[in-house]
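Sequence design from tokenized structure. All designs in this work follow the same two-part layout: the structure record, then the generated sequence. An example of the structure record is given first.
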């Protein structure tokens, strides 16, 4: 918990630094820019140089942003004379092709071709964006051609060289702190998973890993430090990691909120969104980025809205700490919306485009980790409290019993033996009553009431301990014709002998042989897998069919050939309650009857 709080305050400090850090206005210049949209793909540098001034669209010092437009755009800016070395910095790192032409007053041209379709080591200066040395000190013109499948945003600043490098220090410290917090969350929650085996810790850790990779791709840090020569991954990183992040977010949210039990409708919707996120990730492997990004952006907004509403629903339902969960996804949703609007060119602001999703994801990651810790801590505290309360009751009961025993020993010694005898009689009577209440009057097996209670108890025990649980349902074949032909007394005698034969084969103390109803019997087999249950069922069928049953309808009546059909089922992970196990065995039993009787069928699906 202290780690979470510490990371939370470090992150808030980081976000505050990002938002109110040193003003770049004192260290760099945003030049006046004009642009031209080149519909003709053959539009060249010479064409751009020969264009009349009025053919250019003047922007001013606002950062050019054209949304998702794959058409080549030309930018024109004039640089004043300077006596110091300068750098031209394009801050957006996800541009595919950038051609920069410095044109001196004498007509000399220096050309640089950069972009994230070229290995990182080919950049003139190592930076997250694109940094090019300005070759001329005198006033001159700069023409820039940009074409990309990502958002066409070209924020440009002109820096004095030393000022640029000084300004990068605080930014990299902030980014380092951000990824340090993510790494802290991953390690902390993986450790939590190792210690507690709580699956939400693991799925959350993987979600944070992919969120960090997504942020690394968006900020340019990934291309610089993680995959500088892997151009295939650089082209697909945003949509691939974005899709995978939400896939694991789906698993984490399902496990954290227990949606499978809380609400199947919400669970189904969330799984559907997670499946679509997986489709986006798969499509990013072979479809162009220009297509998959338009799959990811609206999906991300819709998915976050869904999770936000889900959090509100759980909050209203009274789920503990759901309000923090909702707040976390609110921050992330707001950051995604602002980021998407920035990339689409609908709003301006380089701070929003560069840091909005990083700030939102940082707050969300910390709050979600806090929720996991709080919920696990609350569950653990509740369990410990219940155990402590039970211990107190046990100690109090023991003390009361001790005092009572001492008083009885002192004051009523002469009646101790009598009381003990009465107590023993009552215990025997209670045991007899208990046995009678759970006993079938005809067959003396356990009755249906006992079966219903026992199967639920064994189901819970199996789920708790992870041990297998098997159920056999047997039904006497053609019992109604037997009753109709020989009479109910003969039928009752067959039921009694049938039960005795079953009971003789139940060799383990925990095996429960029950009369399920009419001519149907059930055997509960704890700690028994499907193969072992099949052997037991075959043994039951053999002992039934090997020897004829006594026919007491008359002295000369021939013995009765009796067979039975059996259905065998074992507990599976997909079963939500004991009724599912009974239903599986019952279906297998009916399959055995449909396929000819005197056989057993295993419920394997």
């Amino acid at each position: 918990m202290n780690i979470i709080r510490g990371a939370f305050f470090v992150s808030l400090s980081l976000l505050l630094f990002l938002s109110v850090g040193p003003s770049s206005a004192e260290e760099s210049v945003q030049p006046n820019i004009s642009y031209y949209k080149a519909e003709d793909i053959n539009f060249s540098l010479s064409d751009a140089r020969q264009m009349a001034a009025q053919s250019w669209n003047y922007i001013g010092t606002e950062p050019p942003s054209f949304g998702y437009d794959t058409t080549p755009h030309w930018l024109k800016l004039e640089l004043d004379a300077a006596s110091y070395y300068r750098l031209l910095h394009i801050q957006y790192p996800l541009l595919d092709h950038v051609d920069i032409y410095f044109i001196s007053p004498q007509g000399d041209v220096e050309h640089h071709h950069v972009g994230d379709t070229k290995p990182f080591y080919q950049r003139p200066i190592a930076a997250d964006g694109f940094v090019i040395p300005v070759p001329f000190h005198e006033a001159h013109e700069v023409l820039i051609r940009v074409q990309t499948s990502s958002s066409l945003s070209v924020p440009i600043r002109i820096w004095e060289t030393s000022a640029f490098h000084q300004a990068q220090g605080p930014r990299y410290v902030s980014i380092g702190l951000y990824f340090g917090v993510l790494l802290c969350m991953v390690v902390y929650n993986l450790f939590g998973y190792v210690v507690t085996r709580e699956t939400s810790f693991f799925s959350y850790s993987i979600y944070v890993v992919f969120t960090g990779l997504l942020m690394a791709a968006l900020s340019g840090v990934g291309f610089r430090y993680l995959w500088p020569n892997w151009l295939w991954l650089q082209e697909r990183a945003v949509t691939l990691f974005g899709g995978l992040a939400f896939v694991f977010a789906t698993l984490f949210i399902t496990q954290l909120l227990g949606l499978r039990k809380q609400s199947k409708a919400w669970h189904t919707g969330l799984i559907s969104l997670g499946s679509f996120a997986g489709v986006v990730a798969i499509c990013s492997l072979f479809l162009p980025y220009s297509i998959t990004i338009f799959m990811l952006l609206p999906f991300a907004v819709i998915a976050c809205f869904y999770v936000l509403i889900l959090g509100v629903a759980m909050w209203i339902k009274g789920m503990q700490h759901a309000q923090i969960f909702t707040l976390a996804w609110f921050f992330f949703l707001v950051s995604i919306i602002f980021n998407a609007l920035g990339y689409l060119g609908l709003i301006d602001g380089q701070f929003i485009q560069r840091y909005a999703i990083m700030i939102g994801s940082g707050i969300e990651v910390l709050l979600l980790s806090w929720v996991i810790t709080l919920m696990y801590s609350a569950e653990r505290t509740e369990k410990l409290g219940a155990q402590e309360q039970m211990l107190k009751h046990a100690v109090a009961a023991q003390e009361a019993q001790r005092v009572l025993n001492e008083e009885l020993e002192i004051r009523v010694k002469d009646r101790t033996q009598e009381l003990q005898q009465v107590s023993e009689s009552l215990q025997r009577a209670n045991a007899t009553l208990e046995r009678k209440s759970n006993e079938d009057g005809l067959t003396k097996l356990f009755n249906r009431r006992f079966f219903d209670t026992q199967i639920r108890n064994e189901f819970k025990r199996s789920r708790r301990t992870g041990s297998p649980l098997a159920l056999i349902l047997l039904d006497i074949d053609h019992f109604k014709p037997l009753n109709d032909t020989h009479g109910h007394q003969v039928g009752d005698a067959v039921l009694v002998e049938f039960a005795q034969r079953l009971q003789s084969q139940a060799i383990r103390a925990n095996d429960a042989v029950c009369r399920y109803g009419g001519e149907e019997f059930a055997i509960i087999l704890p700690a028994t897998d499907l193969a072992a249950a099949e052997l037991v069922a075959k043994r039951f069928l053999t002992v039934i069919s090997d020897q004829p049953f006594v026919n007491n309808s008359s002295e000369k009546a021939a013995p009765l050939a009796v067979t039975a059909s059996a259905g065998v089922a074992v507990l599976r992970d997909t079963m939500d309650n004991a009724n599912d196990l009974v239903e599986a065995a019952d279906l297998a039993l009916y399959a055995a009857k449909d396929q000819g009787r005197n056989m057993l069928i295993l419920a394997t699906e």
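The two ends are 44 Å apart (CA to CA). We note this feature because it recurs in several other targets discussed in the main text.
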